[in-house]
């Protein structure tokens, strides 16, 4: 059964067809015909355009791709590219900063030239290429010519990863302002309820993709893979997000025929910049005292631009002025993906039988967001209001900044506990030595400037810190292997190369001719061991007790659970600062200036990340806890400045101001019409009088 009706909307014609199947499913098809013979098809399911399902799936896959790659990025820098923590932190935050700068470029391109659909498609292709480049850069076998598990040409991997990160930053930032707006465009004017539901589901997909990827990609990174040698599988951790980005692109393109694609109508940010530029230039040209002063410097744009636009820009500049201290909050907030992840690598991740990887600790952020947002809106804020306290948006933001500072105080306290368990490494001007007695009797060692040392048989004097290795003290070669690592054949009175063993129970197989031994060791997080096979070693079922184990570096003993308070404070601060900040900005901005404030907000995030790399490269504090205290102190100082600025801020209603200008414009137009009508009457009267005079003259 088909039912159809037509309705006219400006110069467009909509044709609705409802198809009822026997199963009772109602699917509505919407055909839109443009004036230039362009058309698209809308399928409706349960009152929602089918096209938005493609957009929602696209957003989920894209957010999984981005946050999954970003979760393991700083560890990739440190352990694969072998950068120090400061360089890894600097490059990480440079990448994040670029991700928040490029949305401005994407919005301008979409609104002024390509339109949202083409911008999303083209930049998603760039995005996908970047993710694939990151996955390829993490394959160590490409340049591992000697097959020892370490890339021989690190320059290739660094260059390819940097190109990949640049393309990812361009892609993810460029499509960020387009996808949500493009989804909103799919709804007609009478579908406000469906549009609100769409945005709720849309942002749920963002948090869902972030949460799942932060859980999954660290697990993939922890696996061991390789063609010739087994190493941490960063290529898989980057490869899965790359595959999800391919899925996101394909799904979005498949729905192409169902989308409503609005033509680009120009970007308001360009108009704002041009107006501000003209006002500054005009003010500079009239800087002489002979020109009268104007109430506001933006008033110097009145010669060229409409007064309503100037008034709207004044309102936006008033909010942007409050944005000046905000980057410091993001300086602290985004370090949960860099400094805090590196801090977790020195901690114990055993939660009973559950093992948490260092980069998985970030999952507490999206979990706490989903928990705290409804609690804040339904419990905390109403309770504060009932107590008679006027908890304005700017006051909430101030409290949010203070909570973020408290999070870094917690991080500093955790770091102090970690430092107590870390070994003392030699400085740049010092050296350390390890002495091993492979004989069957005690040995006395005399070192100049040091006391005599007596090493008993099969004993190690620990003066240096190493990763896992075996030392063969017998007069026969021994082959040592595990399921994941082959330490190879160890010659008599020699040692194996350093190897990494993941946490958990590991079984070693020791073989020498027809003799064998099974040795089992349970490893924690971050330990370094030397296994000494003495000259008196005997193969057999009791060989387990014959091997001497020396802990060069004790396994991590400070539990990762101690990081939960700092994640709680930083997330609570985010909810009060970020969510409230966007709400405040939108309430104080004119209706056509939302995009300008969104660009300004993202710009503060970018600046905040640049501050991190500046401090990381310039401060060079010897202790990490001191750096955390420095950041906390800076944010407290900025918090005081912001609270002072907020105290003098006057809340406005942009709609009322715009209505006043509109009313004034209408009155001016009415006066103009009256003057024109009066002039027309005068012209008619003058023409009539002149006609009478000429008529009289002709009669005479």
How are the SSEs placed, and which strands pair?
Blueprint: E1 2-9, E2 12-20, E3 26-33, E4 39-45, E5 48-49, H1 51-71, H2 73-80, H3 85-114, H4 116-137, H5 154-185, H6 192-222, E6 224-225, E7 231-232, H7 234-254, H8 268-285, H9 307-322, H10 327-333, H11 339-344, E8 350-351, E9 354-355, H12 364-386, H13 393-421, E10 435-437, E11 443-445, E12 453-455, E13 459-461, E14 469-472, E15 478-481, E16 486-490, E17 494-495, E18 504-512, E19 515-523, E20 528-533, E21 548-553, H14 564-587, H15 594-618, H16 624-647, H17 654-699
Parallel strand pairs: 14-20
Antiparallel strand pairs: 1-2, 2-3, 3-4, 4-5, 6-7, 8-9, 10-13, 11-12, 14-17, 15-16, 15-18, 18-19, 20-21
Helix pairs in contact: 1-5, 1-6, 1-7, 2-3, 3-4, 3-5, 3-15, 4-5, 4-7, 6-7, 9-17, 10-15, 10-16, 12-14, 13-14, 13-16
Name some characteristics of this structure:
single chain, elongated, 5-stranded antiparallel beta sheet, alpha+beta, disordered N terminus, 21 strands, Growth Hormone, Chain: A, disordered C terminus, 4 domains, 4-stranded mixed beta sheet, 700 residues
Q: What this model shows, in words?
A:
The N terminus and C terminus are likely disordered. The protein folds into four domains: 35 residues, no CATH class; 238 residues, Up-down Bundle (Growth Hormone, Chain: A), CATH 1.20.1250.20; 221 residues, Growth Hormone, Chain: A, CATH 1.20.1250; 111 residues, Immunoglobulin-like (Sandwich), CATH 2.60.40. It is 55% helix and 14% strand. Strand 6 and strand 7 form a beta hairpin. By secondary structure, the protein is an alpha+beta fold. Helix 3 packs antiparallel against helix 15. The strands form seven sheets. A five-stranded antiparallel sheet has the order 1-2-3-4-5. The chain has a four-stranded mixed sheet with strand order 17-14-20-21, with no helix packed on it. The relative contact order is 0.10.
